[in-house]
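Q: I'm writing up a methods section and want to include an example of the input and output format. Could you take the sequence below and give the corresponding predicted structure tokens, formatted cleanly so I can copy it straight into the document?
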Amino acid sequence: MPEKTAPRAEPLSLAVIDIGSNSGRVVVYRVEAEGGFRIQATTRAALRLVRGVDERHALSDEAIARTLEALRDFKAIAVGGGAQRSVALATAALRDAENAPALLERIRTELGIDVQVISGEQEAWYGFVGAVTGLPVEHGVLFDLGGGSMQLTRFRERRRLRSWSLPLGSLRLSDAFLASDPPKAAEVRRVQDHVRRALEEAGVPRLTPGEALVGTGGSVRNLAKIDRRTRDYPIRRVHGYVITLGRLKAMVSMLAAKKAKERRGVPGLNEDRGDSIVGGSLAVQTLAEALDARELLVSGRGVREGVALDVGTEALPPVAAVREASLLALCSRFRTWDEATAARRSSVAEALLRALEPGASPELRDALLAAARVLDVGRAVDFFDRHEHAADMVMETDLYGLPHRGLALLSAILREAGDEDSSVRGYAPLLAAEDAGAVGRAAVLLALADDIEERCPPGGALDVECESGREEVKVTVRTLAGWRPRGLAERFERAFGRRLTVVPGRA
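A: Here is the clean output for your methods example:
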């Protein structure tokens, strides 16, 4: 089992080599002291290791050659990426193959890489840590669908309760049951029956109210990419993407009806997954139906990220802590961002929101305070268009601990703070017309908080008093050096229907 990554005082460049049953990948992570990370280098290769293992109980000579060639390249990526430490692990195919020890010895002797074959239980744990840590989810069932196996973990309050490892991988199912091109209806039914029976025999429970079905793995991420390409959607990354059961079933039917050469042209599908996606998608659909899931929450992270994040704790960090660490990791990349300034702006925005929008939803509050924190990253591109640039950055970068709707709210507030004429229409389907009013008011509060903060002496907390009357809102800031209405007061009145008076202090 890979050695647990202990908390550290300094960042670490860590290479994780993952020899999966269908494909392999190396990722070089910069693991930050606070536990976050970002990718420095990566590459992948199709290995198809599980192909033939079920029949011959051994890896083929071709698969062994592909693996050695890929690992030479992976080692070069680790070296070129500046990895200070490397971890190499293998999963289902090497657990099952009788000649796996001989291959592991060749890898050790010829390449100097010590590959550790992890158990299904260990694979499930790393998948749970990697996939669920960055998602705003508390309870549910996570499944990690690989080429040779499916790991499932039931969790409550972000703590693992039980795990299962089942031989239901996408390539394994496709090779075992889908001989025709395209698959015949009877072959499709046999896959579904086999998966359903395996889940029943393992005792995997149905979801209860409040539990989510979370999925990760290459096939799952490909399904998310395919679904996203069928509609206008404002966020490109799949982490946090939601697939409804209806859309999932339509995708599975579409993929199963196509010949292999036709599937290669499906937008969003990786070219080397055309021969395994039907088996994998059937497994996902059958699992969702067996567990009574109405939708699937997709994670863009998995076992590799679990190795990078794991510090041996039994429960995952709270969502709020993940969100805070992710915001800090993003902002700290930019010299234009100052933590004290961002905190002061956020405190002003929170005081204004509390006084003027006491019934604001938690998701709107979180989005406004995050917008106040990240605004200055936009200055790295241009001061005058900083709102627009910051809005684009949060939609394009990795921010964890926020659902896609929360990311859309965050971006929309930033954009409208700098441009009153912007619209939430560009964030459909995550935001709707009924969100426009709340977003507009939050954007005004962000603009006002920024206006106040930059007119106060640097350093120290800002004491904000807000008197909200029927016709006038009076904001008093003791350390405010001066303020004049300009267009912001008129904009405030349009949003809140009351006059704005900002009173400088006498300090």
